[in-house]
């Protein structure tokens, strides 16, 4: 007789290989996993939206011939000197300390070439960064590491960071191995110790206080430069409304796919909203206050392509910010360093131990030998190329939808592929008029 | 000597005028009347001026001060002299929360009491409080000196780094990783110097103070210490 057929071994969908490996790691170490980057799990995102394009009722514009503008004004509400960007893509805040000086210089070079801005991070402003960034946004964070009025006055805008998408409600941690002499000096802390970045600002609590804090910043800078408020996506309608109330010129809304230098995996994957579900409530808050396009909205968190940029703009954003994608453009997780990634127990594309400071690409490190691997001129050119592609792709879509400015993209241009995306983006499910939560079946 | 009535002159105009003074100005002594608790008075000064404010001020008075001497004849709201870089700020009355927060240099003297979080995240400033300070003072204090003639509230110096705390009165409780340390001669000498700068030359005996600082046990994360945070 034939042997009894055996059922093919089946792994649990719940206790999959990753979950089991994490249980084993936790059991061995007794400590949660810390990593960099943003949410890695599958989330509803812009891939679940499609543009309709022009047809009988819409005229397209001719590619390469008819103008499709991409410029953005930020900070037109109160600032004497609002910012004018040539493209609707900016570089998100990332600190010197978490990143090498070469990486910061690369970001500045690339952004400046394309006429857009970069942003400092926790740890203050470096000369390399200021020198290579034609438009530089200076972050005011809870830690106030390196904060000084001279840098405030030589910034082109100030971004008050209330939260970030990877960890709304969380502070930061720069582990001791990344605290070089220079980083330690900038942050007024001993070399080699873990540097905690507080989760709350030291001198204000709540939106009423923040309004007064912003008044102080405006007084110090003589009302010249725009003031942004950055929030992690959690309660976007109320957070944006309160940011407007507090006097923001610009609101920056960061979804959970947005990266961080280091925090707990459980934080990154389980707190906050994906960007797709955050933009419409934010825009609704601005519209309800009569402030849409008057207080500009910059969104970030998982932007990869010009299609993502176009979809964010169509949903009502004025611009997007990129962080993880910008790092990838200058060489992060490049397969050419696969051998080094293997030595670190990972593989190109998956490396996220940015907090450990051993980045083979010379980006999230303070080790001089590793940082020297990144040529800032080349990194800058690569970033400029990437920003150019994002812009061209956005224009391609906008022209196909008949728009002479990328800001003319609108929700009406979009449909959703899934019920979830339709509900979050508040656009119809493809082939229907159904917007879950807004219209009948 | 310019005298500005803030009941008449808009704050923005005053601060703008203070910021625009040429380096060689003769107008180095300003008097501000009727502050009436307005916020951000004399914020962002960047010159060796003397600014006297005749009355109570709101939030962030003398915020991010550099070089200037700011005398507040009255009480001060939240965040007086926050992130001060250098210079001298003197409050004759009480100060609200977060006095001298994140200050990187200079000297802040408060003749009355200071509320909670006095010297929070201080980064090099010296703060002298003749009265008492509230809870969570010197939280995450990185550098500088906090000197208190009276008492300190709960959780003094919680998660402190390298700042030094000198308290003459009682401490209700110490925060995580903050301990009492030996008061050696070098500390008495340093304390004497700061007190002299603050205008207490010979009036106060440094030997009456007790010193507190970091045990440095939480400087590098250790899961065995997780319960102490």
What does this structure look like?
The complex is a heterodimer of chains A (441) and B (229). Chain A is of the alpha/beta class. Chain A has one domain (48-331, 374-425): Alpha-Beta Barrel (TIM Barrel). Helix content of chain A is 33%, strand content 14%. Chain A is built from 15 helices and 16 strands. An eight-stranded parallel sheet of chain A has the order 5-15-14-12-11-8-7-6. A two-stranded antiparallel ribbon of chain A has the order 1-13. In chain A, strands 2-16 form a two-stranded antiparallel ribbon. In chain A, helix 2 (101-113) packs across helix 14 (376-400). The termini of chain A are far apart. Chain B is of the alpha/beta class. Chain B has a domain at 113-228. Chain B is 10% helix and 22% strand. Chain B has two helices and eleven strands, in the order E-H-E-E-E-E-E-E-E-E-E-H-E. Chain B has helices at residues 11-20, 185-197; strands spanning 3-5, 29-33, 50-54, 69-72, 88-91, 107-110, 123-129, 143-148, 164-167, 178-181, 210-214. Chains A and B meet through helix 4 and helix 6 of A and helix 1 of B.
Write the layout of secondary structure elements.
The complex is a heterodimer of chains A (441) and B (229).
Chain A: H1 17-29, E1 34-37, E2 49-51, E3 72-74, E4 83-85, E5 89-91, H2 101-113, E6 118-119, H3 127-132, E7 136-140, H4 149-154, E8 157-161, E9 172-174, H5 181-187, E10 195-197, H6 206-220, E11 227-232, H7 236-246, E12 250-254, E13 260-264, H8 265-270, H9 279-288, E14 296-300, H10 306-314, E15 319-322, H11 324-330, H12 338-343, H13 368-371, H14 376-400, E16 414-416, H15 419-425
Parallel strand pairs in A: 5-15, 6-7, 7-8, 8-11, 11-12, 12-14, 14-15
Antiparallel strand pairs in A: 1-13, 2-16, 3-4, 9-10
Chain B: E1 3-5, H1 11-20, E2 29-33, E3 50-54, E4 69-72, E5 88-91, E6 107-110, E7 123-129, E8 143-148, E9 164-167, E10 178-181, H2 185-197, E11 210-214
Parallel strand pairs in B: 1-2, 2-3, 3-4, 4-5, 5-6, 6-7, 7-8, 8-9
Antiparallel strand pairs in B: 9-11, 10-11
């Amino acid at each position: 007789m034939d042997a009894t057929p055996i059922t093919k071994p089946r792994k649990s969908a719940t206790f999959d290989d990753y979950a089991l490996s994490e249980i084993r790691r936790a059991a061995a170490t007794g400590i949660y996993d810390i990593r960099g980057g943003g949410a890695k799990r599958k989330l509803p995102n812009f891939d679940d939206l499609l543009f309709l394009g022009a047809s009988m009722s819409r005229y397209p514009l001719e590619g390469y011939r008819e103008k499709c503008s991409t410029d953005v004004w930020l900070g037109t509400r109160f600032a004497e000197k609002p910012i004018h960007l040539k493209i609707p893509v900016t570089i998100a805040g990332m600190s010197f300390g978490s990143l090498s000086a070469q990486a910061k210089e690369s970001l500045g070079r690339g952004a400046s070439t394309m006429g857009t801005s970069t942003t400092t991070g926790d740890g203050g402003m470096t000369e390399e960064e200021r020198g290579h960034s034609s438009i530089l946004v200076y972050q005011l964070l809870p830690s106030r590491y390196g904060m000084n009025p001279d840098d405030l006055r030589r910034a082109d805008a100030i971004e008050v960071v209330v939260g970030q998408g990877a960890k709304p409600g969380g502070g930061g941690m720069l582990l001791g191995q990344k605290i070089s002499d220079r980083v330690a000096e900038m942050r007024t802390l001993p070399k080699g110790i873990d540097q905690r970045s507080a989760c709350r600002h030291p001198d204000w609590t709540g939106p009423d206080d923040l309004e007064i804090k912003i008044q102080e910043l405006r007084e110090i800078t003589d009302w010249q430069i725009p003031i942004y408020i950055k929030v992690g996506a959690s309660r976007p309608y109320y957070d944006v409304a309160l940011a407007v109330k507090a006097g923001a010129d610009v609101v920056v809304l960061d979804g959970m796919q947005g990266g961080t230098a280091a925090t707990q995996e459980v934080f990154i994957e389980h707190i906050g909203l994906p960007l797709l579900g955050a933009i419409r409530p934010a825009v609704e808050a601005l519209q309800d206050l009569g402030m849409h396009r008057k207080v500009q909205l910059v969104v970030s968190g998982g932007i990869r392509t010009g299609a993502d940029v176009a979809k964010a703009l169509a949903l009502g954003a004025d611009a997007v910010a990129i962080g993880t994608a910008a790092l990838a453009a200058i060489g992060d997780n490049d397969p050419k360093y696969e051998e080094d990634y293997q030595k670190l127990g990972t593989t190109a594309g998956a490396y996220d131990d940015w907090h450990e400071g051993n980045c083979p690409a010379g980006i999230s490190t303070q080790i001089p030998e590793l940082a020297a691997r990144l040529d800032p001129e080349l990194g800058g050119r690569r970033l400029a190329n990437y920003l150019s592609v994002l812009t061209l792709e956005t224009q391609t879509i906008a022209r196909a939808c008949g728009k002479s400015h990328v800001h003319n993209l609108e929700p009406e241009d979009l449909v959703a592929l899934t019920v979830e995306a339709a509900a979050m983006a508040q656009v119809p499910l493809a082939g229907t008029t159904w917007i879950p939560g807004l219209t009948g079946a | 000597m310019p005298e500005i009535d803030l009941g008449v002159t808009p704050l923005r105009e005053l601060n703008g005028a203070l910021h625009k003074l040429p380096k060689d100005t003769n107008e180095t002594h300003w008097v501000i009347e009727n502050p009436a608790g307005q916020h951000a008075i004399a914020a962002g000064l960047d010159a060796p001026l003397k600014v006297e404010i005749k009355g109570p001020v709101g939030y962030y008075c003398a915020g991010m001060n550099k070089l200037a001497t700011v005398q507040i004849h009255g009480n001060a709201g939240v965040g007086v002299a926050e992130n001060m870089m250098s210079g001298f700020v003197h409050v004759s009355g009480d100060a609200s929360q977060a006095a001298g927060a994140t200050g990187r240099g200079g000297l802040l003297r408060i003749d009355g009491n200071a509320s909670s979080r006095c010297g929070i995240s201080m980064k090099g400033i010296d703060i002298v409080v003749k009265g008492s300070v509230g809870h969570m003072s010197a939280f995450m204090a990185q550098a500088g000196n906090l000197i208190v003639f009276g008492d300190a509230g709960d959780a003094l110096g919680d998660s402190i780094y390298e700042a030094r705390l000198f308290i003459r009165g009682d401490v209700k409780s110490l925060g995580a990783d903050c301990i009492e340390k030996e008061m050696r001669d070098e500390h008495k000498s340093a304390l004497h110097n700061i007190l002299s700068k603050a205008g207490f030359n010979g009036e106060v005996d440094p030997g009456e103070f007790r010193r507190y600082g970091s045990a440095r046990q939480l400087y590098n994360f250790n899961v065995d210490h997780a319960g102490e945070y």
